[in-house]
């Protein structure tokens, strides 16, 4: 079974990305042949900054490895290291009705938010379908926001088979993480770069603690019991704390006599300990200059090998060979 997913290199990884995307991907690498890539072509649809792109790709690669992606088990590569994906995107474009793309929410949302759309942003789901079909992927774990893009991918795979014969494309199944609770940000809304409410998973201790101290809480006096429902501090603490410590935290909310400053301190400590092994690993990887490049080069080689086989099947099905 081939499992494939991509992550866009678009800035510092936050706690929401970690629990929503990174951690599930790392867990899944044991359940099949995992192909994980950094979607650098996709990132170019919303930002055209060569220096930032280079840096973000490298940082995301280090993050992924620090968080447990094992390059011996998973094939890890940059999307652009396999340019065949563009060839497949073109072939898919020729069978993709305009209507399929113009109804995509993520495109419509971005336009509604005032982004002046380029052709690539409109064609984004076709490139994503090419990412998936190029490796005969069976399972594609993604967040809820990508559900519609997976439907487009399946529609295009079916259409490719109808047009050029069964077996031209493998039809992938999404694994939609409906149950991954949406991780709350510092202001209680969904944690997201676009809301400026994120808690990065890597960074300097002092500034991270400061961020945690900024979490919005209510004004219950220290001696009174504190609400446990809808508490951002508690929902974050639950992600990091040991079970026993979480139970103590709940009991201390219910009994009163503890202030939010104290709770935030406990949260900051639990958070810091939770990411300690990843932080140490990250430092090791960053210090070893050649390592990331070697991993990505080896991954690209494996990915291209697979892509080459799939492309020659598709080229001959469509009449290019
Ligand atoms: P952002 O909203 O910060 O721009 P992205 O849209 O780049 O984050 O998300 C990258 C991945 O992280 C996606 O798979 C998405 O589902 C997941 N993700 C982002 N924010 C959260 C969150 N608050 N809770 C759970 N998963 C999240
Ligand atoms: N569009 C995805 C996102 O923003 C990233 C992505 C690109 C992807 N190609 C993919 C995810 C292929 C899964 C499969 O999160």
Please, could you describe this protein's structure?
- Helix 8 links the parallel strand 4 (about 140) and strand 5 (about 175).
- The longest helix has 30 residues, at about 290-320.
- This protein has a 3-stranded parallel beta sheet. Strands 4-5 form a two-stranded parallel sheet.
- The chain is mainly α and about 325 residues long.
- It is built from 14 helices and 5 strands.
- The two termini are about 30 Å apart.
- Bound molecules: adenosine-5'-diphosphate (ADP) and tryptophan.
- Tryptophan (TRP) binds next to strand 1, helix 7 and strand 4.
Topology readout:
Layout: E1 2-7, H1 15-28, E2 33-38, H2 40-43, H3 50-66, E3 75-78, H4 84-93, H5 98-102, H6 105-112, H7 119-133, E4 139-142, H8 147-164, E5 173-176, H9 205-213, H10 232-240, H11 243-255, H12 260-274, H13 276-287, H14 289-318
Parallel strand pairs: 1-2, 2-3, 4-5
Helix pairs in contact: 3-13, 4-7, 4-14, 7-8, 9-12, 10-12
Bound molecules: adenosine-5'-diphosphate and tryptophan.
Main sheet record:
3 strands, parallel
The chain-level mean pLDDT equals 95
- Which molecules are bound besides the chains? adenosine-5'-diphosphate, tryptophan
At the fourth level of CATH, the homologous superfamily of the largest domain is HUPs
Quickly give the CATH architecture of the largest domain: 3-Layer(aba) Sandwich
The structure class reads mainly alpha
Termini Cα gap: 29 Å
CATH topology of the largest domain, by name, is Rossmann fold
User: In the residues, how many domains can be counted?
Assistant: 2
Fraction in beta strands: 5-15%
**Number of helices in the DSSP assignment:** 14
Q: Helicity, in percent?
A: 55-70%
Categorize the overall geometry.
Answer: elongated
């Amino acid at each position: 079974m081939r499992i494939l997913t991509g992550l866009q290199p678009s800035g510092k990884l936050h706690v929401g990305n970690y629990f929503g995307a990174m951690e599930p991907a790392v867990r899944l690498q044991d359940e099949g042949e995992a192909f994980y890539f950094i979607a650098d072509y996709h990132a170019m649809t919303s930002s055209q900054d060569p220096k930032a792109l280079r840096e973000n790709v490298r940082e995301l690669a280090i993050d992924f490895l620090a968080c447990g992606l094992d390059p011996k088990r998973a094939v890890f590569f940059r999307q652009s290291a396999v340019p065949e994906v563009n060839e497949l995107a073109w072939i898919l474009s020729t069978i993709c009705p305009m209507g399929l793309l113009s109804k995509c929410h993520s495109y419509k949302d971005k336009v509604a938010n005032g982004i002046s759309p380029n052709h690539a942003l409109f064609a984004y789901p076709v490139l994503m379908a090419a990412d998936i079909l190029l490796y005969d992927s069976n399972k594609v774990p993604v967040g809820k926001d990508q559900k519609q893009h997976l439907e487009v991918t399946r529609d295009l795979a079916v259409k490719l088979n109808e047009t050029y014969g069964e077996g031209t494309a493998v039809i992938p199944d999404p694994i939609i993480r409906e149950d991954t609770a949406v991780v709350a940000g510092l202001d209680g809304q969904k944690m997201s770069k676009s809301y400026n409410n994120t808690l990065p998973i890597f960074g300097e201790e002092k500034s991270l603690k400061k961020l945690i101290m900024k979490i919005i809480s209510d004004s219950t006096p220290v001696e009174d019991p504190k609400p446990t429902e809808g508490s951002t501090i508690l929902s974050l603490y639950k992600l990091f704390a040991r079970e026993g410590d979480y139970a103590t935290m709940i009991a201390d909310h219910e009994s009163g006599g503890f202030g939010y400053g104290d709770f935030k301190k406990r949260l900051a400590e639990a958070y810091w300990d939770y990411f300690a092994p990843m932080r140490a690993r990250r430092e090791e990887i960053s210090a070893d200059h050649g390592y990331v490049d070697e991993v990505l080069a080896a991954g690209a080689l494996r990915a291209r090998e697979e892509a080459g086989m799939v492309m020659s099947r598709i080229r001959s099905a469509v009449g290019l060979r």
